[in-house]
Amino acid sequence: MSLTKEDVTDLSYRIVGCAIEVHKQLGPGLLESVYEKCLKYELKLQGYNVKQQVIVPVSYKGLEMDTELRLDLLVDDLVIVELKAIEKVLPVHEAQLLTYMKLLEKPQGLLINFFTDNISKSMKPFVNEYFKGLDD
Length: 136
Prior knowledge:
Elements: H1 5-26, H2 32-45, E1 50-55, E2 58-60, E3 63-65, E4 70-75, E5 79-84, H3 91-104, E6 108-113, H4 119-122, E7 124-127, H5 129-132
Parallel strand pairs: 5-6
Antiparallel strand pairs: 1-4, 2-3, 4-5, 6-7
């Protein structure tokens, strides 16, 4: 069975549902690390495979660099979740997520800011060429 755009979109929808649950329980105003741990726990409760603080390797013209780049959560080896707990998400945060998606060849990324009154409205989903290459 090959992976479809619908599969990835459905997974992202469920991840956002878990983030909403965490936000509903905790509210805004805590450290990003707290939300990260709680979201990882919530996703695991729902049966997802979640990796936390995954190192993002960088290769430049054959040079494999040891970097300090780490993404927050990787769910089912498909969707990268970058979490924030800040007043305003900046373009640099979006660029960071898009770069992680490209370097790891993942089709979807979610930028979720917990410093909000509504996760659904503030959450930003991103797709790339790997998503476009999936079956419809």
